[in-house]
From TrEMBL:
Cited PANTHER family: METALLO-BETA-LACTAMASE FAMILY PROTEIN (AFU_ORTHOLOGUE AFUA_5G12770) (PTHR36839)
Domain of life: Bacteria
Record-annotated Metallo-beta-lactamase domain positions: 75-244
Protein name: Metallo-beta-lactamase domain-containing protein
CDD domains with a match to the protein in the record: YmaE-like_MBL-fold
Bilayer-crossing regions: none
Length: 274
């Protein structure tokens, strides 16, 4: 019995004798199956290869980023957000070894894991078991869980306060249950929003974007983006960290509103004429 991991998306599946026939994450139109076909690995194989290493870096007081080198699967960054007595892992990466576990325990461990959307579920159950942490996933994305666990809590509604300084907000878009994290104590209490790629910081760090599918370039409807902007206009934040270690350091709330308007204008043919 083994817990197979899809090489393309990095999501781990429940234990089985044989590898699954397909990855339910990658065969859906927001993702893709590799041109080389469906291939699998396991966490044990990744560790035994000696190829991978996680880097944990301090981003600002109370915030650490975690990334895997060389990049694996989607290649996202996870973050540890530290509160007064509550530490959260925001989003997840696949690779986890004893060195990573010991380093994280050395900075206070993890009390909970919260996910922005299914593409970053990764080996979340391995992380939860290593740190005895609960996993928080919006119930709208329940169907995408590939490895069930009693560690998982499916929350409902539009917001969930996990600690006084950490609030989850379901804003939809990329997935129905797409979620962002408001960190009130971040950025010297000017507040931080951690967005996964529900809100993606683009190459020009003054702007963000929103997509139904990033690899397949499928945009979101104008009404959906307007809804996201409206929800985020109710949340105070001055800085954004996204899933690929892109940061808007200042005036991020205004940047999101300007970006949403530009996006909608582009869809409606107002922004340009080509």
């Amino acid at each position: 019995m083994k817990n197979c991991i899809c090489n393309t998306c990095g999501v781990q599946f429940e234990s089985s004798i044989n590898a699954p026939e397909k990855c339910t994450i990658c065969t859906e139109e927001r993702q893709y199956v590799s041109l080389n076909g469906q291939t699998w690995t396991t966490l044990e194989e990744m560790i035994q290869s000696g190829k991978y290493k996680n880097t944990i870096e301090s981003e600002e007081q109370g915030l650490y980023s975690i990334s895997t080198s060389p990049s694996f699967a989607i290649g996202q960054t996870a973050y540890i957000v530290q509160g007064k007595s509550f530490n959260m892992l925001w989003d997840c990466i696949t690779y986890l070894d004893s060195e990573t576990i010991n380093k994280i325990k050395g900075i206070g461990g993890i009390d909970a894991i919260a996910l922005s959307h299914p593409h970053y579920y990764s080996s979340q159950v391995e992380w939860a078991e290593a740190f005895d942490a609960r996993i928080y996933i919006h119930e709208d994305d329940k169907q995408w869980v590939t490895r069930p666990s009693d560690k998982i809590i499916f929350w409902s509604g539009e917001s969930l306060e996990l600690a006084k300084e950490m609030i989850l907000h379901r804003i939809g878009g990329h997935f129905k249950g797409a979620t962002v994290l408001e960190w009130k104590n971040g950025n010297a209490k000017q507040e931080v929003l951690l967005t996964g790629d529900i809100v993606r910081v683009v190459a020009d760090r003054r702007w963000v974007s929103f997509m139904y599918s990033y690899p397949n370039f499928i945009p979101l409807p104008a009404a959906t983006v307007q809804g996201i902007a409206s929800r985020l206009n109710e949340v105070k934040f001055n800085r954004i960290y996204d899933a690929f270690h892109r940061i808007i350091s200042d005036q991020a709330g205004d940047r999101v509103q300007q970006s949403a308007k530009r996006y909608v204008d582009a869809l409606n043919g107002v922004l340009f004429n080509t």
